[in-house]
């Protein structure tokens, strides 16, 4: 996904809501849309973040938001109606009340894609650390310091990633950190999804 536009899924049972949000996001993101729960679930593997209606269900009655929440590498915000009995159906800290206003929506999507980028960076850092470790076990690390091109390249990439991570973390608040550490397996899931996109 690095270097490319982030992909956002907008899924709600109200087609007017979906169309309006799509028009607001289209200039900056690749936007996938769905008004059917089963179709929304079929699109999850191709997106980075999800805006999903609280009341959107699959044909079997499963709440789509609950299914999206199982994908640890996906950032999600719930679109909810206002009024009695409209509390969130998930533990996600992000939700937007309908009718959705443009500025809060754009801020929320920006937050979601920053979280996704964080997961990607963590996954790549873990992968590079493993590769560096493998090289270091082959020959004394001092031999690689200035002589082995692959090792030097990996170290430089890792250093650049850590700088980007540091910059990104400075934009996080408490909700962002809670979302990032919601599961102890988030790095593995992010790494798996990142690898699938590169294949």
UniProtKB/TrEMBL annotation:
It comes from the Archaea. Signal peptide: none annotated. It holds the Pfam family HalX. PROSITE patterns: RESPONSE_REGULATORY (PS50110). GO terms for biological process: phosphorelay signal transduction system. Gene3D superfamilies: 3.40.50.2300. Residues 7-113 form the Response regulatory domain. Transmembrane segments: none annotated. This is HalX domain-containing protein. It comes from Natrinema halophilum.
